[in-house]
Amino acid sequence: MAGFLFQNSTPAQALSGSTQGVEPAKPVQESKPKKKICCACPETKRLRDECMVEYGESACAKWIEAHRLCLRAEGFNV
């Protein structure tokens, strides 16, 4: 293991196995959505819904995907 460098360590620390002064990697915190999914992205939701009523689901793929991208940007896992 002496050949591996630890994140934020110097080569001397890696060789000696010392990790003093090296902070462990912090886990990435996923942000919790600030809104309910029904209230997020009203613009794309309206466009998606209107398109689906008039033309059907198969003709509205671009609006459906735009709404999904907006929801993901708001922190939802869809």
UniProtKB/TrEMBL annotation:
Cu cation binds at C38, C39. Residues 1-21 have a biased composition (Polar residues). InterPro entries: Cys_alpha_HP_mot_SF (IPR009069), Cyt_c_oxidase_Cu-chaperone (IPR007745). SUPFAM superfamilies: Cysteine alpha-hairpin motif. GO terms for molecular function: copper chaperone activity; copper ion binding. Its main location: mitochondrion. The keyword Mitochondrion applies. Gene3D superfamilies: CytochromE C oxidase copper chaperone. The keyword NAD does not apply. GO terms for cellular component: mitochondrial intermembrane space. It is found in: Mitochondrion intermembrane space. Keywords: Chaperone, Copper, Disulfide bond, Metal-binding, Mitochondrion. Residues 1-32 are annotated as: Disordered. It comes from the Eukaryota. Coiled coil: none annotated. Belongs to the COX17 family. This is Cytochrome c oxidase copper chaperone. It comes from Linum trigynum. The lineage of its organism: Eukaryota, Viridiplantae, Streptophyta, Embryophyta, Tracheophyta.
